[in-house]
Amino acid sequence: MAQVITDVVNTVTDFFPIKRFAALFPTVASSPTIEALLPQPGVDMSPFIRLAGLSGLSGAVAISLGAYGSHVLRDDPSIEERRRTAFDTASRYHLIHSLALLSSPSARFPLATAGLFSVGILLFCGPCYHYSITGVESTRKYTPLGGVTLIVAWLSFIL
């Protein structure tokens, strides 16, 4: 695989004056090869691939719920503005933190960071979605806990 990528990069650079430009900067021209940048055969990437899958699933759910809110909740005159605002906030936070979940493998403790983001999304966005769709306020008490969990997830990057 590494050889294929190297061949593609070399072929592309033959057609463009990148090699001549890179020669002006010897440190860039002598940088490590692509093989050094790829994971070594003994490295188990499966936890990181699962985290990417979890992030993709969360993002897909965020987009789906956002589309639902955009087409159903906005057109319903019986839903008050407060519920629409809660839905917009949940949708925005859900999508932003799904992207943040994608970067959790770069944290020192990637599984803890991913877990914090996942729990935070569920505890913050879930009650907001529930309130927006049903009008029942009983689950809104969990929203601050979800917000704190999301803050801790962000702070876990500095550990």
TrEMBL record:
Protein's membrane topology: Multi-pass membrane protein
GO cellular component: membrane
Localization (cell): Membrane
Main location (coarse class): membrane
UniProt KW keywords: Membrane, Transmembrane, Transmembrane helix
Keyword Transmembrane: yes
Annotated InterPro entries: DUF423
Highest taxon, organism lineage: Eukaryota
Transmembrane segments: 48-68, 109-130
Keyword Transmembrane tagged: yes
PANTHER family: TRANSMEMBRANE PROTEIN 256
Family: Belongs to the TMEM256 family.
UniProt-recorded name of the protein: Transmembrane protein 256 homolog
